[in-house]
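Consider the tokenized backbone below.
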């Protein structure tokens, strides 16, 4: 009796892979059984994390007493003669859940006699037939990694976004699609995306990330960025024949009593050289200047501009420096040193270039602060918050074009 069965069987199985894979078992000459076709009924070849996949075997032509089974294996072929573990062979169920991620599994359907005594398939069946084998990729979860940088001067909150997992992790040509209430963009798995927010207090940021396989993730963050009134527009110093001319311009002055200008030859110890009353003007730009006729004719001089509030609170506004009769490259000074909260790095270069500044601890293994600066020629400075660093010895590393300059400071 010939028996043709149109089977709609599904699979349930746990991921314990002990199978070995080889070529299909050869049929006997007197067999009329024919293998069917294995397809994916629900899901796809790429399964998102915690999603399911359903497979279906159709059109098997079976010998009398044969049944259709499914086997899940972790290599592309099956060695039927060497098969000793049967825990991944099933004939019922309806789904397989991706609860591991980052793994490729294979599934094959086969028609075979059932050993009625042992209750397991009889692999001595000479009429065994096997279907096609389907590889299924269990994808890792899509995850969003974000770092924030708050500029209290420009009131700009920047998110640095990277994404991994999902389909782009196994196919780098695929993209993640990022959307929010005000933003939409796509990036690859090795890309970094910078998103700027203009926000003052309790900045709420929500982001949906989805790959081309519809694996997705939601990112939500609340951040506080303090707005600092901006009124120092510029601070410059220029060498003149009769001294150094320091200029600064302000706008929107409010609650400022006076400005103090101090000078230093080492970048650490400053002496007051000039004090001027502030105009507290809210409507137009005011320019100030002072000629330091006592400046050294050769060497570097640093100028520090501070403000004094009406409550006598003093705050640093900026530092500039100028070199006369010599050239200086690299880190000029770190101040204050030792430091409690804010560390200012003074540096100088002859040409415009991109600089990288890292703060590392005494082990030197991992930077705790990393900054990238597009520096114009001359002398510049960067002030960083180091209040969160542990007490002890730390280093500032400034690098560009394969060269490094390192200075030590104490927290």
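A designed sequence for it:
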């Amino acid at each position: 009796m010939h028996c043709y069965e149109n089977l709609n069987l599904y699979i349930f199985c746990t991921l314990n892979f002990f199978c070995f894979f080889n070529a299909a078992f050869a049929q006997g000459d007197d067999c009329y059984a024919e293998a069917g076709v294995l397809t994916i009924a629900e899901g796809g070849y790429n399964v998102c994390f915690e999603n399911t996949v359903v497979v279906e075997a159709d059109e098997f032509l079976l010998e009398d007493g044969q049944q259709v089974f499914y086997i899940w294996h972790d290599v592309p072929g099956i060695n039927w003669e060497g098969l000793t573990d049967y825990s991944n062979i099933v004939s019922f169920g309806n789904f397989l859940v991706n609860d591991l991620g980052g793994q490729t599994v294979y599934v094959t359907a086969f028609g075979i006699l059932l050993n009625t005594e042992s209750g397991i398939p009889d692999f001595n069946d000479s009429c065994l037939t096997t279907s096609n084998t389907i590889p299924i990729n269990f994808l890792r979860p899509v995850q969003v990694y974000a770092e924030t940088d708050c500029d209290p001067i420009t009131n700009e909150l920047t998110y640095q976004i990277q994404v991994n997992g999902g389909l782009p992790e196994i196919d780098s040509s695929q993209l993640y699609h990022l959307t929010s209430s005000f933003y939409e963009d796509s990036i690859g798995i090795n890309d970094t995306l910078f998103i700027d927010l203009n926000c003052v207090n309790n900045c709420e940021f929500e982001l949906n990330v989805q790959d081309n396989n519809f694996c997705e993730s939601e990112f939500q963050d609340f951040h506080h960025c303090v707005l600092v009134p901006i009124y120092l527009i510029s601070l410059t110093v220029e060498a003149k024949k009769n001294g150094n001319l320091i200029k600064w311009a302000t706008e929107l002055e409010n609650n400022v009593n006076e400005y103090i200008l101090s000078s230093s030859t080492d970048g650490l110890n400053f002496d007051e050289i000039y004090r001027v009353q502030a105009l507290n003007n809210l409507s137009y730009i005011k320019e100030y200047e002072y000629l330091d006729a006592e400046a050294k004719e050769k060497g570097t001089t640093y100028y520090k501009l501070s403000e004094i509030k009406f409550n006598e609170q003093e705050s640093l506004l900026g530092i500039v420096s100028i070199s006369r009769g010599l050239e200086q490259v690299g880190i000029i000074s770190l101040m204050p040193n030792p430091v409690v909260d804010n560390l200012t790095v003074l540096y100088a270069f002859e040409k415009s270039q991109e600089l990288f500044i890292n703060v590392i601890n005494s082990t030197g293994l991992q930077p705790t602060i990393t900054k990238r600066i597009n520096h114009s020629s001359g002398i510049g400075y960067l002030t960083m918050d180091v209040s969160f660093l542990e007490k002890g010895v730390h280093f500032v590393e400034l690098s560009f074009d394969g060269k490094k300059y390192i200075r030590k400071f104490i927290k």
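The first strand starts at residue 3 and ends at 4.
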